[in-house]
Amino acid sequence: PGLNLNQGSGPITEVLCLMNMVTPDDLEDEEEYEDILEDVREECSKYGIVKSLEIPRPIKGIDVPGCGKIFVEFNSLIDCQKAQQALTGRKFSNRVVVTSYYEPDKYHRREF
Amino acid sequence: GGSDRKRKRKSRWGAEEVVDKTVIPGMPTILPANLSKEQEQQYLLHLQIEEISRRLRTGDLGIPMNPEDRSPSPEPIYNNEGKRLNTREYRTRKKLEEDRHKLVQEALACNTDYKPPADYKPPVIRVND
What we know:
The complex is a heterodimer of chains A (about 110) and B (about 130).
Chain A: E1 15-19, H1 30-44, E2 50-54, E3 70-74, H2 77-87, E4 91-92, E5 95-96, E6 98-102, H3 104-108
Antiparallel strand pairs in A: 1-3, 1-6, 2-3, 4-5
Chain B: H1 3-6, H2 37-58, H3 88-110
């Protein structure tokens, strides 16, 4: 409603932002967090070299920016594009994976 | 929209196997990077609501085929005809309805013009039990 999303992804970058996969609650427990990290790293590595991975975790009393999103930095644009095509719309813990490219500068400044 | 024309011609052959992807009509899963935080949040809420509605409508409840993968059941509750009331399907549907209700409340809090799906009904609130 009022939002035209048929414009597609916009320019490709090396950083993929994965949304709607985890809730802040899922990330509180250390073991669950480690499992999620491993699941994401393993799956993403099928599509290219994962240079870095960030999953902002909740901190009590603070509104952590990007908490609930997962950011994956790939070695190249083409790997990132392959990963997006493969992962978008897939299910992760019964939730539909939503993706977008993310500005690498913002990612490296940790502006989530 | 214009995206239909740009798409490559698709083979008439159907998929060989069921692909583990969900397509919700009118709700793409690829977003542009330039959405505001509010637009993004609203969109994700709407998408989750549509997805739960789809699951309730089609009976795609996500109950594992293998009973060993299922969570433990609570004590059964029977009606006076001996029929079990709290079946796994019943519990799963109830949970999905509750999740959807929460999401609709959030979507309405973001945007008062939001129209929930036609098959959504708010839960009946009993004033005194």
